[in-house]
Specification:
It is built from five helices and six strands. By secondary structure, it is of the alpha+beta class. It folds into two domains: 2-63, no CATH class; 68-133, no CATH class. Strands 3-4-5-6 form a four-stranded antiparallel sheet, covered by helices on one side. It has a two-stranded antiparallel ribbon with strand order 1-2. It is elongated, with a radius of gyration of 23 Å. It starts with a strand and ends in a 7-residue tail after the last helix.
Length: 140
């Protein structure tokens, strides 16, 4: 059985996605909805959306996603600070020259190819630093 869950993005726009649900489970939930209307559910979709939202809150999905966040940028010194919500840390990324080539160096991971560096390279502001200095973007 497929359940369509509405995601309301704005008053004038709705988006839907399909979710597969075991038929036996869906039948039991629908029976519950009919037998216990005092819980306020009118449809299987309402029930599933509420259950998913509650589980997402338990897992802190709404506060942990997206995982990375650009916190600040010191263009003068070439320092990018990235917030990593998964680990609860701030990773400082440095734009430096190593062996004659520009790289981004993550102080937290002691790496030039970690997830923090990859995220930093996805930021327009970071790419602009490299363009302004005439540097090629590093391969990660």
């Amino acid at each position: 059985m497929k359940v369509i869950i509405a995601h309301r993005w704005s008053m004038s726009e709705s988006k839907y996605t399909k979710v597969n649900l075991n038929k036996e489970l869906a039948d039991k939930i629908e029976q519950f909805i009919r037998d216990y209307p005092e819980h306020g559910y009118r449809t299987l979709g309402q029930f599933v959306e509420d259950a998913v939202r509650r589980r997402a809150e338990d897992l802190r999905i709404f506060e942990l996603s997206p995982r990375f966040e650009h916190f600040n940028l010191d263009k003068e010194n070439g320092i990018i600070r990235i917030r990593d919500k998964k680990y609860g840390i701030y990773a400082d990324i440095y734009a430096i020259i190593r062996n004659g080539k520009p790289i981004l160096w993550c102080e937290h991971d002691h790496s030039s190819s970690c997830e923090h560096v990859k995220y930093a390279l996805s930021l327009d502001k970071v790419r602009e630093i490299f363009r302004c200095k005439g540097w090629e973007l590093p391969d990660v």
